[in-house]
């Protein structure tokens, strides 16, 4: 049937700040859903407290409310707007929980608001572990033996009845919070207690543990006619026992028999139909016994899930966009396939390629954290790669990770201690994939690795084959590798860096030149949802090594925007926000805007956001060949964080124009020593400093500048490796550790200004004028990373003289660095003295916050300035902030209860929220301000 015309205004509930287990995939889903509804002429209102997202931008919705996700905020919006319906399925568990709370309070009924995309009863059935288990029994779907427990005694009785090993699953929690395996009776009491406290209803499911079984996910859509389609089947490389968010996943399923797959499809459809009559998206997870293919259901989520973004990017099927249209009444056969433009949305996608997702961890930020993976999610982000084969996609995913790996091994970072390797295989952490390859290289038999990991033999055979290829490659020299064998290596995903390392005594460029001589070129294939059965209209590409290239370069003038890769602490969703605005601005300036990124969670990798999308690693070899094909006017590196910035020097060497601030000036700001020399020349105060390349030099510098000192490496983001030390012994340890992890890096030793306040400015420079877009005062004192500090816009306690100096130094530095575009400067303020700590001529994590607070599209303006399309004088900038805006960091320490939560110069927060206050008497602000007083007094 056609859409429900009575729905003229919809409220979408967002997911709030980024935390482990609920990240920017919901920014993507919410943004897609909003744009989908606006296409239908529906007025869209969004509530979300996250300032770093595109979802909370005026380009996405008609009304954006940056408010706390509470029922009070919901009612405030319902009083202002005549909302017809609420869509709570795009904001993860946070949105669903808030929808239930509002329903229980009678808000939807009071304001005559219809819940669409799901019904509250369906949420209750799926989140309540006992109701879900009983429903599965009733409809004949297998489940693990389990019992519900609402008390310690009930839990003990359940464990005695089921036996060990078992799983504890708390009800109504996100990303496995509070859950875990219990292998021994001695560990049960503590685990049960943890689970009961984690559940808001004080309820857990005590369940039989099916360790070693295979795990699968299915993404489904259903319309009001009860038509159901399967969008994607995702297989976990890792067996049951590791949270799916921490697992390597593969699509389509690689090791399923057709019979098992058909059974799984039928059960998933039955499950979706059994939980309610809603129209929209659904995610179902199954476990399969590898011995006899017995299937049991793990859970069902009647909403867009973490995997929905992955499935959308994997198939080219925009799940959230279609789910939003189904929620307002459309049927699948009435909607158009967004890729082909000729087939209907009722066509199930068909893949003629393989995608691999690998999670990204940040254990380095949580010293002492338990790195073993289990039921509780610990990953902070993920990458996705597309290849013609599993192994090609796997190697490309490894190159995308931003961990310094050139692929799956063959890069000089292998482990060689057999005992440590085998322990890693039995106790999985984020590096287990690499240690499987290390084990094969040491001659460990495949069956021994299978028993240790319980990973399906098919996957292990694929990795073992790499070892055989590498042994064969070592028989050759670069000039005599047979062309067919060279082509095989590239088709197996080997980077030129890996091949150079395996051959020894040759460089990446020499390997690159040799394969070009042999005519071995990267070609690009289109992601088309239908295995080329119908022509695709959307330019969405991945690379491989074959003969036919499907990406034809146009004769338009082009700009390439380099993305920020996987989310991690220090480089999060705010950089994707910047990239999206960069694309929009480039298109407005008449350029063909081309995106290169590998993060499936983000809006920048939505296939209709750029004129052309390359879903590729932001890895030099891949970027270089895209540039050679497209021949752009230039490349924007200023918006994608450190991932993009680190390409600047090689782009410069290749003769590619860097849009905006030049490499030379970006490098000057990044090189802490040279930058301090510039400050001295400009007569701008800065802390006494020195540069060291060894522990001996560091001790000498520290004694010259005076303790306490701030120790930090050059060219890092998020305060990586920074520490404050107070004596020679601590300094020596810090420097030795830095040089071990970042060999060859210069270490900057700054005198640390204790009892100083911290502030920062963001500005735009067009080469002539400088516009200060915002100045912020931090609640926490200097010494705590700016990303972990609460920041107040505009400053609340700095004198006008201090603010004038900050403005003066910002203008001086912008002109001295010849900035074209954005510049972020961080200051230490002691009394009336202002010191510059650092300057970053690029997008910062605070620009989206300022843009949302003042309601000014600053990234759009900065990009047009970078492109030379406009000068600052061309823009009329009106700030709309009345009062103050506060950026408050959000942490995920609950995932790592064993680590030190003390904040310092290395960033630990995973996200941020925004709060508006009218004046400084606001109770929320007074509480923060009291914390500041305590911090300063403690120092």
TrEMBL record:
Segments forming domain ATP-grasp = 133-328, 676-867
Keywords from UniProt, A to Z, are: ATP-binding, Ligase, Nucleotide-binding, Repeat
Identify one Pfam family in the record: CPSase_L_D3
List the SMART domains: CPSase_L_D3 (SM01096), GARS_A (SM01209)
Catalyses which reaction? Answer: hydrogencarbonate + NH4(+) + 2 ATP = carbamoyl phosphate + 2 ADP + phosphate + 2 H(+)
- Its Enzyme Commission number(s) read 6.3.4.16
Task: Give the EC class as a word.
Answer: ligase
User: Molecular function (GO) terms listed?
Assistant: carbamoyl-phosphate synthase (glutamine-hydrolyzing) activity
Sequence similarity: Belongs to the CarB family.
NCBIfam families tied to this protein: CPSaseII_lrg, PRK05294.1, PRK12815.1
Q: What is this protein called?
A: carbamoyl-phosphate synthase (ammonia)
Q: Can you name the source organism?
A: Sphingobacterium zeae
């Amino acid at each position: 049937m056609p859409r429900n015309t009575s729905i003229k205004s919809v409220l979408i509930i967002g997911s709030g700040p980024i935390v482990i287990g609920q990240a920017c995939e919901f920014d993507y889903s919410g943004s897609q859903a909003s744009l989908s509804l606006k296409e239908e002429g529906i007025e869209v209102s969004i509530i979300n407290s996250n300032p770093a997202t595109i979802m909370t931008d005026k380009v996405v919705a008609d009304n954006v409310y940056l408010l706390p996700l509470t029922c009070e905020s919901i009612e405030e919006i319902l009083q202002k707007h005549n909302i017809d319906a609420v869509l709570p399925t795009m904001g993860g568990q946070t949105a669903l929980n808030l929808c239930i709370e509002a329903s229980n309070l009678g808000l939807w009924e009071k304001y005559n608001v219809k819940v669409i995309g799901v019904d509250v009863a369906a949420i209750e059935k799926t989140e309540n572990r006992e109701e879900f288990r009983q429903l599965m029994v009733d409809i004949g779907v297998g489940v693990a033996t389990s019992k519900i427990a609402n008390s310690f005694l009930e839990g003990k009785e359940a464990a005695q009845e089921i036996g060990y090993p078992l799983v504890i699953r708390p009800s109504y929690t996100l990303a496995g919070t509070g859950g875990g395996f219990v292998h021994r009776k001695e560990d049960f009491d503590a685990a049960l207690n943890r689970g009961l406290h984690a559940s808001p209803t004080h309820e857990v499911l005590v369940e039989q543990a099916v360790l070693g079984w295979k795990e699968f996910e299915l993404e489904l859509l259903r319309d009001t006619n009860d038509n159901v389609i399967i969008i994607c089947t995702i297989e976990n490389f890792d067996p049951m026992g590791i949270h799916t968010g921490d697992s390597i996943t593969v699509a389509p399923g690689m090791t399923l028999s057709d019979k098992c797959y058909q059974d799984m499809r039928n059960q998933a459809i039955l499950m979706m139909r059994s939980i309610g009559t809603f129209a929209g998206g659904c995610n179902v997870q199954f476990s399969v016994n590898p011995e006899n293919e017995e299937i049991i259901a793990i859970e069902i989520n009647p909403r867009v899930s973490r995997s929905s973004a992955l499935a959308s990017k994997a198939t080219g099927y925009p799940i959230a966009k279609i789910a939003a249209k189904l929620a307002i009444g459309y049927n699948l056969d009435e909607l158009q396939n967004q890729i082909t433009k000729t087939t209907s949305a009722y066509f199930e996608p068909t893949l003629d390629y393989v995608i691999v997702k690998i999670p990204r961890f940040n254990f380095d930020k949580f010293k002492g954290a338990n790195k073993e993976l289990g039921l509780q999610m610990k990953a902070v982000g993920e990458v996705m790669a597309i290849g013609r084969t599993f192994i090609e996609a796997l190697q490309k995913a490894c190159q995308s990770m931003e961990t310094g790996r050139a692929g799956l091994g063959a890069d000089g970072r292998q482990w060689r201690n057999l005992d440590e390797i085998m322990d890693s295989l039995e106790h999985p952490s984020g590096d287990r994939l690499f240690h499987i390859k290390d084990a094969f290289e040491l001659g460990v038999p495949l069956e021994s690795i299978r028993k240790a990991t319980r990973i399906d033999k098919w996957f292990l055979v694929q990795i073992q084959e790499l070892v055989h290829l590498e042994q064969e490659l070592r028989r050759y020299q670069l000039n005599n590798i047979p062309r067919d064998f060279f082509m095989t290596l590239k088709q197996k995903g080997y980077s030129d860096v890996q091949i150079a390392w395996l051959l020894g005594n040759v460089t990446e460029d020499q390997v690159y030149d040799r394969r070009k001589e042999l005519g071995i070129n990267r070609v690009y294939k289109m992601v088309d949802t239908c295995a080329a059965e119908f022509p695709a209209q959307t330019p969405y590409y991945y690379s491989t090594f074959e003969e036919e290239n499907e990406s034809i370069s146009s004769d338009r003038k082009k700009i390439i925007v380099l993305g920020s890769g996987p989310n991690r602490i220090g480089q999060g969703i705010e950089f994707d926000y910047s990239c999206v605005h960069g694309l929009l601005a480039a298109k407005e300036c008449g350029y063909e805007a081309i995106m290169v990124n590998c993060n499936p969670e983000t809006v920048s990798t939505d296939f209709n956001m750029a004129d052309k999308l390359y879903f590729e690693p932001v890895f030099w070899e891949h970027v270089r060949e895209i540039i050679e094909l497209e021949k752009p006017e230039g490349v924007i590196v200023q918006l994608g964080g450190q991932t993009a910035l680190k390409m600047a020097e090689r782009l410069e060497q290749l003769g590619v124009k860097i849009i905006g601030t030049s490499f030379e000036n970006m490098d000057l700001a990044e090189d802490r020593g040279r930058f301090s020399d510039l400050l001295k020349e400009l007569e701008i105060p800065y802390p006494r400093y020195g540069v060291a390349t060894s522990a001996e030099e560091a001790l000498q510098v520290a004694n010259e500048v005076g303790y306490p000192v701030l120790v930090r490496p050059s060219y890092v983001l998020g305060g990586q490796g920074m520490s404050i030390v107070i004596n020679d012994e601590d300094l020596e340890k810090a420097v030795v550790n830095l040089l071990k992890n970042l060999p060859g890096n210069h270490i900057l030793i700054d005198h640390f200004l204790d009892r100083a306040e911290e502030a920062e400015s963001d500005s735009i420079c067009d080469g002539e004028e400088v516009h200060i877009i915002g100045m912020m005062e931090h609640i926490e004192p200097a010494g705590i990373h700016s990303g972990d500090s609460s920041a107040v816009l505009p400053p609340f306690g700095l004198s006008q003289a201090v603010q004038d100096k900050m403005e003066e130094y910002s203008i001086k530095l912008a002109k001295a660095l010849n900035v074209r575009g954005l510049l972020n400067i961080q200051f230490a303020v002691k009394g009336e003295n202002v010191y510059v700590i650092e300057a970053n001529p690029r997008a910062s994590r605070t620009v989206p916050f300022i843009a949302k607070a003042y309601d000014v599209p600053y990234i759009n303006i900065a990009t047009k300035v970078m492109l030379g399309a406009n000068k600052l004088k061309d823009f009329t900038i009106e700030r709309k902030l009345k009062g103050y805006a506060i950026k408050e960091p959000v942490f995920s320490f609950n995932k790592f209860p064993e680590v030190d939560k003390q904040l310092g110069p290395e960033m630990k927060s995973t996200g941020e929220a925004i709060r508006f206050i009218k004046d400084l008497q606001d109770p929320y602000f007074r509480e923060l301000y009291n914390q500041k007083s305590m911090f300063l007094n403690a120092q």
